[in-house]
Amino acid sequence: MGIKTISELDIAGRRVFIRVDFNVPLTPEGKVSDDTRIRESLPTIKLAIEKGARVVLASHLGRPKGKPDKKYSLEPVAARLAELTGEEVALTDEPVGDGARKVVSDLPAKAIALLENLRFSPGEEANDEAFSRALASYADVYVNDAFGTAHRAHASTAGITKFVGDKGMGLLMEREVKFLGKLLGDVERPFVAIIGGAKVSDKIGVLDNLLGRVDQILIGGAMANTFLKAKGGQLGRSLVEEDKLALARSFLKKAEESSVDVLLPRDVVAGAGIKAESGRVVQAMLVPEDLAALDIGPETARGFADAIARAKTIFWNGPMGVFESAPFASGTLAVARAVAGAAGALSVVGGGDSVAAVQQSGVADKITHISTGGGASLEFLEGKKLPGLAALES
Are strands 267-271 and 280-283 parallel, antiparallel or unpaired? Predict the structure, then answer.
């Protein structure tokens, strides 16, 4: 790709602007409730400090709509980062401006400054040149370690790179590119992709691109309903993309022509709605009129687990049902355990709910790589050029 890594950049004594992904969930009291993304950035931050750099960190948090909003302040993130690093973290009072400039200018070697939420300025998401130049003025070297935002052409991920001479990727970004890149190269077979989630329209690009690479595709979640209806199933009140039935039929035909085995649910757990306190197992093609398919059933879970157990390469994105509701979480958790138990397989998991299932099942340490970018990992595997990566090419 022609992209340098932070290990290859000359950063000693220089200001290193690191775009991180600190878009973390907060408690109602405004504390960090899950610091996974902060922890994932630590190897890059610590390496920069060890090499004697002056570290300037930048991230967004939530959707403050281009103006300051106290509930989206990075203050709790700065506090948690200070605890994790044992270093003082100077948080600026704005992403750019006189206050931020003074904090960055006064920063000694081996110290950390964190710019206030980038999205407090409309210039961030607009990829505004003036905002990009202002960010670049804080940088002698630019490093992007925020894979989760690499599919967005924002000022801090793309625009800034036009105004900084030395640039590269952090250790987390390097790891993401390495493992996702493996899935697009020569892999050990069988290669099994497990795709879930709500909409065919969100995943058809990656499904099409994987057709020429995988041996089997296991489809679950609400998107499976559209495929089942396309095959003549009766889906009751299940979520179905009626305008995507022809697309689903076309995909199944292409898969057959490519000799790719597509496994759809044989049974489902159906309920009156996502807030139902229980569900019942019914045939996937015969969901009663008053019920909706909300999880894959036990027979399907066993079939999926058998296919996963034979795999040597696995990619999983998207839950098998309404995972956040206990009565409809079993299928997703079963898939998480099966992926973790696939002996000797290269396993890559991407997407918020899939990652949550892996962590909830207590098997995260048995997955080869857990991607920090749901949308970015999908676009990467679609074969799209991610703006945040393209901007780093020298």
Answer: antiparallel
In a shared domain, residues 152 and 218: no
User: What are the residue ranges of helices labelled H in the chain?
Assistant: 36-50, 75-85, 98-105, 122-125, 129-136, 171-183, 200-211, 222-230, 245-257, 298-310, 330-341, 352-360, 374-381, 387-390
Q: What is the pLDDT of residue 310?
A: 97
Which DSSP letter does residue 385 get? P
Cα(283)–Cα(270) distance, integer angstroms: 9
Contact 269, 323 (CB under 8 A): no
Q: Which domain holds residue 357?
A: 184-381
The answer to whether residues 345 and 284 belong to one domain is yes
Q: How far apart are CA 66 and CA 366, in angstroms?
A: 40
- Per-residue pLDDT of 122-135, as tens digits, reads 999 999 999 999 99
Q: Could you tell me the pLDDT band of residue 353, with boundaries at 50, 70 and 90? A: confident
Whether 363 maps to a domain, the answer reads yes
Per the prediction, the chain carries an average pLDDT of: 94
**Which residues sit opposite 112 in a β-bridge?**
55, 89
The count of domains in the chain is 2
**Distance from C-alpha of 17 to C-alpha of 135, rounded to nearest angstrom:** 9
Average pLDDT over residues 279-308: 97
Q: Looking at residue 198, what is its pLDDT?
A: 86
CA distance 92 to 96: 9
Please give the positions annotated as active site: 37, 199, 352, 375
